[in-house]
UniProtKB/TrEMBL annotation:
ATP-binding in keyword set: no
Gene Ontology cellular-component annotations: extracellular space
The keyword Hydrolase belongs to this UniProt entry's keyword annotation: yes
PROSITE patterns: SAP_B (PS50015)
SMART domains: SapB
A GO molecular-function descriptor: phosphoric diester hydrolase activity
PANTHER family per UniProt: SPHINGOMYELIN PHOSPHODIESTERASE
Signal peptide residue numbers: 1-20
Protein name: Saposin B-type domain-containing protein
SUPFAM superfamilies hit by this protein: Saposin (SSF47862)
Keyword list, A-Z: Disulfide bond, Glycoprotein, Hydrolase, Signal
Domain Saposin B-type: 46-130
Amino acid sequence: MRISFAPVILTLAVASSVYAAPAPAHLAKRGWVADKLKELVENALNTLECGACTAALVGVKDVAWLNKNWVLDALAEICPKVSKLTPEVCTGAIKLEGPALLDALLKADLLSGDAKFICYQVAGICAPPSIASGTLTFPKPKPANAVAPVSSGNLIDVLHLSDWHVDAGYIPGSEAECDQPLCCRKHSNSPAVPKRKASTWGDYKCDVPLKLGQNMMSYVPTVANVSFGILT
Ligand SMILES: *[C@@H]1O[C@H](CO)[C@@H](O)[C@H](O)[C@H]1NC(C)=O
Ligand SMILES: *[C@@H]1O[C@H](CO)[C@@H](O)[C@H](O)[C@H]1NC(C)=O
């Protein structure tokens, strides 16, 4: 399954308010930053628009230049408040994706269109960028008499595993009908009695339990003599 990072991006946007802080000295005061952000979250949620989103990204970038941890810490605090994600899901997502997102943001040329594009792609806030016309020059022309290689006729079996989503954290019997991006795990807000129990072999709302993944792998040799495998 695909995890939506919209809440994280939203908090990235909201963190722009840090930019409005008067001086870096104040940013070091974590409590002050957290309070300020909390206050501005509600404000940002009411006024989300293209200009606000791009300004937010510029702000986040400026703070990230000073110290990436300040942004990540702020996001981890805000995320559970502006989304229904539990603190551990927020922290996990920010820890995993935050540094890469910030690196991308630091490389982005925000004012020349990147910010609008990010806001469009991630949150659908800005208008889609217009398609620029241009001429593409290929490195060399198509060969005049291209001949396809002749097949040897020898066939091999190749195992191609795509979008592998085996979840080592899958817990049979846990809540399969949760409100988090990934269910069938123990979340801090999991009810004592699940609405639907995660079965031993998996659930449509969850990633694949280890048991199913292993069982599938042991089945493969019964249907193919695999020469090599690729995981994409
Ligand atoms: C960035 O902030 C973190 C957390 O506040 C702090 O531990 C770290 O020393 C800071 N790094 C720099 C380079 O200032
Ligand atoms: C794998 O190759 C062996 C030897 O050629 C053959 O006996 C066997 O049937 C093959 N297995 C599969 C699943 O194709």
